[in-house]
Design brief:
This protein is mainly alpha-helical. The protein has 5 helices and no strands. Helix 1 packs antiparallel against helix 2 and helix 3 packs antiparallel against helix 4.
């Protein structure tokens, strides 16, 4: 029961956080990126576009949270995409060096959460099979 509550809570939190962050980037553009300063119109356009994509990603998490049972395969795919984002940050770190400290914090979150989601992903499906 604890794993199910943790799964549902984290999936909902992930969904709402991604939607909020995505919309924040759509609305503020470069101003939403710590350390970006005046990165120019091309980066602003790119950031706003990816903000919209990230909001859509969050809607995917919210859709998962509304399913019963929470589909483990979809949770794992979404968590994998999140981990891929962390991999991109690590590649950037290797090529260009350390980013703004806030980006480092985000990288840590993006590396820590996917294994938690992978572990929790099938909690509700297992409980449903055991009941039925």
């Amino acid at each position: 029961m604890v794993r199910i509550k943790a799964l549902r809570g984290l999936v909902l939190a992930m969904g709402y956080a991604c939607v909020a962050i995505g919309l924040y980037h759509v609305l503020l553009g470069n101003a939403a990126i710590p350390g970006a300063g005046a990165a120019g119109t091309t980066v602003d356009s790119l950031g706003r576009f990816f903000g919209a994509i990230f909001a859509g990603y969050g809607i995917g998490w919210l859709w998962v949270a509304r399913q019963s049972p929470v589909p483990a395969t979809v949770v794992r795919w979404l968590a994998g995409v999140f981990l891929l984002g962390a991999s991109g940050r690590l590649l950037s770190l290797a090529v260009h060096g350390w980013p703004h400290w806030f980006q480092v914090v985000l990288t840590v979150i993006e590396l820590v959460l996917p294994p938690v989601f992978f572990w929790l992903a099938d909690a509700e499906e297992k409980a449903s099979r055991a009941e039925g």
